[in-house]
Amino acid sequence: MKEGWEYKKLGEVATYINGFAFKPEQWVSEGTPIIRIQNLNNPDAPYNYYDGEVPEKVKVVKGDLLISWSASLGAYIWDGPDAFLNQHIFKVFFDKTDIDKMYLKYAVTSKLNDMLDKVHGATMKHIVKKDFDNIPIFCPSLEDQQSIVSELDLINELIAKKKAQLKDLDSLAQSLFYEMFGDPVENEKGWEVKKLGETFKVTSSKRVMQEEWTDEGVPFYKVSDLINVISHSSTDASVYISEQKYQELLECNAVPKEFDILVTARGTIGKCYVISRNDRFYFQDGMITWLTENNGSVLPCYIVGLFNSARFIENLCSSVNQSTVAYLSIKQLSSKHVPLPPLPLQQTFASRIEAIEEEKQKIQSSLQDLETLLAARMQYWFE
Length: 383
Description:
It contains 13 helices and 20 strands. By secondary structure, the chain is of the alpha+beta class. The protein folds into 3 domains: about 5-140, DNA methylase specificity domains (Adenine-n6-DNA-methyltransferase TaqI, Chain A, domain 2), CATH 3.90.220.20; about 140-175 and about 340-383; about 190-340, Alpha-Beta Complex (Adenine-n6-DNA-methyltransferase TaqI, Chain A, domain 2), CATH 3.90.220.20. The strands form 6 sheets. A 4-stranded antiparallel sheet has the order 2-9-6-7. It has a 4-stranded mixed sheet with strand order 4-3-8-5. Strands 12-19-16-17 form a 4-stranded antiparallel sheet, with helices on both faces. Helix 6 (about 140-180) runs antiparallel to helix 13 (about 345-380). The protein is globular and about 70 Å long.
């Protein structure tokens, strides 16, 4: 422990009030937004609403510190509208000691792994209040807290700028697609139209039984894993398969080849990944669709641009199977009509996208360095 610092338990530095237990039948289409865990993890997630009264202590305003303690653990500064807090989320009241709000947020974030070791429950993982309150954190002077926050905030601001640059480049790529090819649904430029199944063989992976999953070996991607790979946030897999199983799949030509395309087909629809030469993983059948045996009339880069088009995805999702989770079948994707611009125009588009991707890789490398730095400084100050 650093000189002059002391340990305090989370329960000693603040009060944590759980949200209100709203029932689904109380949700309405208008009223005050209800903050659920999905609204913390994803600012674009839709709200449920409530038009009644709740205790003052579960009313949330911009700037409040919220901590999710069930299903998904995390600390967040609320940046949305005035709202009511749902259960499974704490609202923090700074009524016990002199502690900086952002310092506590960083301190709680640094203890997430410790919290994971204490979670309970078979279906809804959660940390009980007693265990949460007893987690110790360093408590330096308020001046030191604010100095630490300034340093970590600066790194996070740089990270946010890098992420914004990546979003801007993605927007540039989408604008370029519309400029060159027009609206893919309206097809106002009159390009030839074919079913996707006439251009590719639309299939999926061979089934790998759950008892064949392993804790190490060749990555076996589910939808969420592949989305992380597409966004460059992680190449880790939830589970793996053995080297022997992977070789069996290779021998029966069941592994995607370079330039084949994988498309997410359950939950999150239409995220594309183009197989590269050095890729070495397998993927879950039924969740991810595999486009292979391209007849040469279309470039993978064009298909990725097509699926990145909001208009195309909106049109595609209107035809998916809607149950509890959106699902796009091989038959539905095969029968989807897509415009096919001339190959030379696709090649021009691909060369321009390549330049954008090169710039994104530079920014991504810088982003990874900053995230590594942030992790190191968090470890220095809090562990």
